[in-house]
Amino acid sequence: MDNRPRLFLTAAFLCGVLFTLGFKDFYPDLERRFRRRRSPADTLVSAGLDRIDLEDHTKTQASDKPAHVEIPEGIEACVGNTPLFRIKSLSEETGCDILAKAEFLNGAGGSPKDRVALNLVKTAEEQGLLTPHSGDTIYEGTVGSTGISLATVCRAKGYLAHICMPSDQATEKSDLLLKLGAVVDRVPPAPIIDPMHFVNRARSLAADHTADPKRPGRGYFADQFENQANWKAHFDGTGPEIFQQCGGKLDAFVAGAGTGGTIAGVARFLKPKVPHLRVVLADPQGSGLFNRIKYGVMFDTLEKEGTRRRSQTDTIVEGIGINRVTANFEAGRELVDDAIKVSDEEALAMARLLAEKDGIFVGSSSSVNCESSQNLMSKLSDERKALLLHGLHDSWDLETGL
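The structure assignment produced for this chain is given below.
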């Protein structure tokens, strides 16, 4: 009998076993190649469906490189661009959005006067009146806040500061000025026509410095009350910031006035852009600005303006309120629609309320702004309004318990 068919069958069986064992390891790789070649879109097209393009979102879109952030150059570069925030207690009570500009976040002296001090110095430099690190000294008469801002900016930009201030202002202010390296003259309160008034004292000291050939550098009188660089600092900075932050949706702007630069500069910027805007002055007791807005006279009509010799009515409020006309206030006076008078008792009560209800610790001038804002919103219609009060900051009124 021929055994060749049996041998062929045996050989074929063994070849099949060997082929199966070899293909078992090769097949997975073949399948992977086939799947890559046959995309999901091809499968959809072969099934008669519309072709779609799929995107791979499994890879991170974020760059491994950190974003470039410009680092401010010096403390003076940290002035401005302060945020707005809603004062919850006052907004809920009045049914209006009462917004505050957090001027305490300015990087130099922690007040809106940082903007003024920086612009006063920059403008004088542009005019060739100041040269850094030359011994030039900046003289200024101030109740404190501008002096603190000037002393800080002077240190940062290479100048000396000489501050004249009334002796009835909080000692914490002069103590801080001394720590910042400024020379401080605390002079007795006097009317503006007196040569020893703190503003006149600073002016004369600056002139004496410049005239003395034995003293290095020059004396520059900053003159915050009359220097137009004051209101322009707010026209160029504060006003545009408010407009952008509110998106132009603002019904009223409330601010106090000492030099008048803030309310004038902001009003000059905002009024043309927000025609229905009401600009309201917040004025403490003893100040003549309330009557200036309401009746066009600085104080009692029986007294000739500019010759008043008696002292201003006593008040705990520092930093705002004045009994004379200044160039900065007059720059925007026609744009101020109304004025609200605030007593010391009202200012104290508001300062305590803000601390207790909102955790906001501010000085007397800021509390006058808040009290005026609350009064104004209570008088307006029931329609929800947006009001901005300017410049919450600590006025260093520690002696009055604020």
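Interim note for the steering committee: The chain has a mean pLDDT of 84. Strands lie at 84-86, 97-101, 137-141, 160-166, 183-187, 219-221, 252-256, 278-284, 338-342, 386-389.
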